[in-house]
Design goal:
Elements (H helix, E strand, L loop, with lengths): L1 H19 L3 H7 L44 E3 L10 E8 L5 E7 L5 E6 L4 E3 L10 E9 L5 E10 L2 E10 L2 E4 L16 E5 L2 E8 L5 E8 L2 E4 L11 E8 L2 E8 L2 E7 L4 E3 L14 E9 L2 E10 L2 E11 L3 E11 L9 E5 L5 E7 L5 E7 L7 E2 L10 E9 L2 E8 L5 E7 L1
Length: 423
């Protein structure tokens, strides 16, 4: 009986402490808790993290919103904005399935090429310094994802009399040359060179002096760069070219005589996909920026054309089936200034959701990103407004794990590189 009275007295004291607030710490340890460090109960939404959200460290961990609400998506910097050491030119951007991000560019002061990787916290150089030994331009980066992700970079050297394209890959912590230099390149190009990859086999597209600056694609086979056919632009200049591999099939879009054309490699020849007597641009007044992507329903191209004295950004899909025809996906914006370099970019997801980025003269030459699903009838602006803080050039758009990313030359940060994502 005496022991029972003692327990009763202790219980009364505990109840008094809890009611008076003195036992708040004790309550927090035996209740649901106000935060989580496991990431499974904290999370970015804070749904089980209590009033202060969670500080989780797992896949769903994050800062948690007050009161358990969801976080509103927005454009966020990846690392520090303007992270390159100086002003840049010729930006190229890529990602791999592990979520790693890579940028290649030419440093404007030294004119030499660099590659940087985002390590989850900050951007750092790949290798001990510059990738190139000489002044470069027209850089392009791609990733070999067949086994361990390996970045490859192509760049053009234009220091007379040395004029060539060189390809390097980052392996064993150093940049190693891939094959011999490609020497049939013109002094000036109306197109960028572009590098792509299929199962550890690199492909490169560029204008060639051997065919009056016609478009050439080469494939690296048994230690040698070999031509893929003769040329894809019928011995005419291939301007504003955009090249990629969809699976193992090469596709290219380009301008010739103010008309826009799309071709693919059949295995023995370059086949024109345009319906007879048509081009993807409606008006043959001016066509000076092109970016191509390919999805499950066929090629899609974004471009700039002149219409009624306005330089507008347009998107067209090429439907290829029993009949082939163009599907006009609309005029999505205006880019009225005379800067054709790096002003459009386009990406597509596995479910055929399109993302389009462009230099937007109606918003201070900032980057605007728009989105359209396959079944959707309208484009929507991602984030509701411009994606960059100020004017941008050399715009690159990719979608990685369903998250859109942009890399660009950022005039808000002295012409250095900024990378942003929308989530």
């Amino acid at each position: 009986m005496k022991k029972s009275k003692t327990y009763g007295i202790i219980l009364c004291i505990l109840v008094f402490l809890l009611v008076s607030g003195c036992g708040g710490d004790l309550l927090s340890t035996i209740g649901t808790g106000t935060s989580s460090t496991s990431g499974e109960t904290g999370g970015t939404t804070g749904t089980t993290g209590g009033s202060s959200g969670g500080s989780g460290t797992g896949d769903t961990g994050g800062s948690g919103s007050s009161g358990g609400g969801s976080t509103t998506p927005s454009w966020k910097d990846v690392g520090s904005p303007g992270f390159s050491t100086g002003e840049v030119e010729y930006v190229s951007f890529a990602g791999d399935p592990n979520g790693n991000l890579y940028v290649a560019y030419t440093d404007k002061t030294s004119t030499r090429a660099l590659v940087q990787i985002f390590d989850g916290t900050s951007w750092r150089n790949m290798g001990s310094g510059y990738v190139s030994d000489e002044g470069t331009e027209m850089v392009s980066i791609t990733i070999d994802t067949y086994t361990t992700p390996i970045p490859l970079i192509a760049y053009k050297v234009n220091n007379y009399p040395n004029r060539y394209i060189r390809v390097k890959k980052f392996e064993n912590s150093t940049w190693q040359q891939v094959g011999a230099d490609i020497t049939d390149v013109p002094a000036s190009q109306g197109s960028p060179l572009q590098l792509s990859m299929w199962l550890s086999t690199p492909y490169i597209a560029y204008p060639s002096t051997n065919y009056s600056q016609a478009g050439i694609v080469k494939k690296f086979v048994t230690g040698t760069w070999e031509d893929l056919g003769t040329n894809f632009s019928d011995s005419s200049p291939a301007n504003y070219m955009s090249f990629l591999l969809y699976g193992y099939t090469p596709y290219v879009a380009y301008e010739r005589n103010q008309g826009g054309y799309i071709k693919k490699w059949s295995g023995s020849s370059w086949d024109l996909l345009n319906p007879p007597d048509t081009t993807f641009n409606t008006y043959h007044l001016r066509l000076d920026a092109i970016a191509l992507t390919v999805g499950i329903y066929g090629p899609v191209v974004i471009y700039r054309e002149q219409y009624d004295n306005v330089l507008r950004i347009c998107v067209n899909r090429l439907y290829v089936g029993e009949s082939t025809y163009w599907i006009d996906l609309g005029n999505i914006g205006i880019c009225s200034d005379n800067v054709p370099k790096g002003i459009v970019s386009i990406a597509i997801t596995s479910d055929d959701t399109l993302y389009a980025a462009f230099r937007d003269s109606e918003n201070g030459n900032k980057v605007t990103v728009k989105k359209r699903t396959y079944s959707g009838a309208q484009w929507e602006t991602v984030g509701g407004g411009p994606a960059s803080a100020s004017a941008a050039e050399y715009i690159n758009l990719i979608v990685l794990n369903n998250v859109p990313y942009i890399a660009y030359k950022d005039y808000a940060n002295g012409g250095k590189i900024t990378v942003r994502k929308y989530e």
